[in-house]
């Protein structure tokens, strides 16, 4: 944004999202990626998601006009405990004491990073707070929807970006520049035509990356908790600061380097807790499957088919975190007629039997 396009942020964002839609559509045209049939509930959600995306970018732009980047870094980090609290009350996701400590370590590192250029700007803080609150609430909604939606990750990305274009145009006309019409598309088009090839290439590349980024976030919400995605997003911002300092030859002070180091350390330690939790869950499921296979050896073919379906569903649906209670619940029947539905079956003259659940 160091070119003349920095004066037309909203329209530049519209162009980038348009390029991202073109990229995703092209991939689907050549069947490199797919999407399933769109339902009415999906359209309702993606309209909401696109509106929130525009609001997030708008509040971020307004905050950056009034506060230094370090301030937005702090508020981005403060979003981690906000997401964790909302996820606990709304989705029932619990964090261990180690995870709570490492989240607070990331927040502390962000404050260290911002110590040298902290500015008191109440309006800027309000915009930053609105951005943090919007991102935190949307993280919970995205986690819930993506975990329960049958739409593919590519489809989710395409619909969100596609619907964000008309919403951004309306926002530019009636909200941006105090409702005075916003940026003029004709003027922006003339500015774009005067850009050199490097600027045009970077603009196209960022648009293509936007489609990849949306796909990655959808996959992340389906595979991990909303708090984990928030931690990853904070690390992404810090890494972009480090890379930017090298590319643009900017010098980072010792305090900033220490702050980034503390944040990255907290994020790494948090990720190790997630890895250990996932390994513990996988071990529990593996032990459960082996145990049931041993008990299932004496049963007929019908029962073995039912056992395979139950096991497959359990492995497919399990999330991170303790599952011992669910395993006991799914495997709580008695052999010989006391478990499951209580129905007996016989396969090819074999003695009657009942599945062990």
Describe this structure in words.
Helix content is 73%, strand content 0%. The chain is mainly α. Helix 5 (122-148) crosses helix 8.
Features:
single chain, 357 residues, mainly alpha, globular, disordered C terminus
Produce the secondary structure layout:
Elements: H1 9-29, H2 40-66, H3 69-91, H4 97-114, H5 122-148, H6 153-174, H7 185-193, H8 197-223, H9 226-247, H10 254-295, H11 301-317, H12 324-330
Helix pairs in contact: 1-6, 1-8, 2-5, 2-6, 3-4, 3-5, 3-9, 4-10, 5-8, 5-9, 6-8, 9-10
Spans where pLDDT lies below 50 across 5 or more residues: 319-357
* Average pLDDT level: 77
- Rg calculated over all Cα atoms: 25 Å
Helix content estimate: over 70%
**Total beta strands:** 0
Report the sheet-strand fraction: under 5%
Instruction: State the helix count.
Output: 12
Distance between the termini: 61 Å
**What are the secondary-structure elements, in order, as H or E?**
HHHHHHHHHHHH
Q: Pairing-aware structural class of the strands and helices?
A: mainly alpha
Q: Largest sheet, described in full?
A: none
Summarize the structure.
With 357 residues, the chain is mainly alpha-helical. Helices cover 73% and strands 0% of the residues.
